[in-house]
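[audit] Reproducing an earlier prediction to check determinism. Same input, same settings, fresh worker. If the tokens differ from the archived copy the diff job will pick it up downstream; this log only records the rerun itself.
[audit] input (725 residues):
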Amino acid sequence: MKLHLLLLFSLLSFSTFAQSFPSNNLSSFAQLYGYIRYFHPSDEAAAVDWDKFLYHGIEQVNDIEKGNDLQNTLTNLFSPIAPTLQIYRVRKAPSKMNVPTKTDNSVLVTWQHKGFQHSERNVYRSVRLGRIDPSTEPAHGLSIYPDLSNLSGKQFRLSTKGKALSSTNTQIQLLTYTRARKTNRYKLPINSNDWETFQLVDTFEEGTLQGYLTIQMLGLGTAELDDIKVELKEGDEWQEVPIENASFEGTKADGTPKYWEVDGSGYEYTTKENALHIQSIEGHQVGALFAHYAKADESFTAEIGNGLAVRLPLALYLPKDTPTTFSTAYQALTKKLDAVTLETKSAKSMSTRLGAVITAWNILRHSYPYFDVIDTDWDEMLDLTLNRMLATQNEEEAIKVLQKMMATLQDGHAYASHPIMSKLATAPILLDYVENKIVVLDSQEDQLKAGDIILAIDGEYALDVLDEQAQLNSGTLQWRRHNALRTLTLGDKEEDVTLQVKRADEDLTLDVTRKGRARRSTRPDSIVHLAADDIFYINLDAVRLPAIESRINEIAKAKGVIFDLRGYPRGNHEVISYFIDRPVQSARWNIPQIIYPNMENTPAYDTSGRWTIEPKSPQLEGEIVFITGGGAISYAESFMGIIEHYELAEIVGSTTAGANGNVNPFTTMGGFRFGWTGMKVLKQDGSQHHLIGIQPTVPMTPTIEGIRAGRDELLEKAVGLIRGE
């Protein structure tokens, strides 16, 4: 009886919380939270613990029924961290913003976002101009991405020749990432006025996965570098890592070094006399990501619902030295925040779960680059998702709410996950959607065979389960199905799932243990020579470029080559260089340069980082065919986009996923993890790629009959094309 009473009390308490929580009030708070956190330039806003503030704010908004109105509550919450913020009734005019006339001892502070950086450093960056210490937070650089992988615990040597002509603040950084998503920076300073050789010897942290090189000047002046080298200790030997244009002999049309990528602005990187020359630009804002920024008289005004509007400055003149203490109101707020204990890996409290919604919604509202090509009203999605979350009672229900929100982005990279999902597993079977049926491609369970049709899963019609899972995934139909098929039998690890199966004329009921994911493919993971036809088959999902190049002379003379890219490439896109007669370029990668909320008036896009691939010898002499499909996404589409645009080969299969560009991941309170596409990728001709993908020149899908017979019909078609059939 005690257990039942306790459960009843718990449910009543939850119900009271949910019913007393006006989601429209919460929506107003959520919008204002995003405006202040990501765009208000004050030092107080930069110093506050935003997750604790979010949790505290949600609780305060819930207490409005106890006597406070929404306007007063929001004012009391935000004024300590945004003293210049105005919250007013829609029918009233805001006060005039005061801009100081004397700024001798001040610095202009404002936000710049290249894409959006939440908590993890990647190609996306966010900075407060005027408060950047370039020695610790350089927001610029010249980068290159050699094959630096599997670095865990390895010793390395980083060396270069260089001189700093009028600046002692130049360095090469070797940046690495670990399995725990930790970033390490190994720095080699260049601190001589004359040419010298500089060397750094160190050991990568255990768990280090990959890395890249960035050259940076931290301040004003000029510097020159040459002959950059990275070596890894393998046993007793040092092995050099190949770096394209490490001696800066190749130059792009804009004067920058070939193969290297410029990030940020304020510095010129050019090749002169076969060396790299770095020059700071006079008058540039230190650490600026790009040239545009909000001016002192610019403000942002928006309605936030409930008859309220807000106005906030986008740039402020602040003291040159960052204050060490703030107002008594701010100190009182921080005392309240100190009492907040956040959940970092669980989300048992409603405020934690609502906080995940508010953080994710805001990040996407202010930086998702594809709102112009999808049919989702993101503002309405805030209210809908808050209401859905208010009906949840645990993390399992919460993650589905968040997945549904992310699905409306129609972005194949978009996802929401939680550590609690680690206890789940699937049956070890590989499935496909063929002839409007769910078909087994491969199984590590002897009970199931290729070609079996799944009719029901734990008593539920299998196609209905597929549809339900697809609604939790984002992107095109082909990508949502691809992902849904991988999780179709998802459930508690080591528990059985009951499958009703059709095998020819036989109906079977099978219990299969959820042991983990099946292998992703049944295709060969090596280079295969089909000797009878003198055709090479190369599975680009498995074979790396060095393995291909080790046999390139043999491959070049073959009658034909089939490249299979139905999955994800293994760093091998430069194989294209062996079948082009002129330089080719990848799709256009456009990172939005954001200075205004809600993606309004985006001044420009960062278009750096585009691949340029040069021809190499020997050139392939035979016919070339590519195989692809709905499981090819992102990097695979950058690869396939070159094949499509330059018409380099026939493409057999089906349309790719239609989602390209670097994923931007972030984690919120409660341990919820999200990802999405942070840049707008356009095809080489400037047309839309998102939701369009790469189209086959020879459309084809497998058949159930072919799967049962163990045939790869797309491969057979590719062979037939080379034969001339």
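[audit] rerun output stored. Observation attached for the diff report: Residues 1-21 have pLDDT under 50 and may be disordered.
[audit] end
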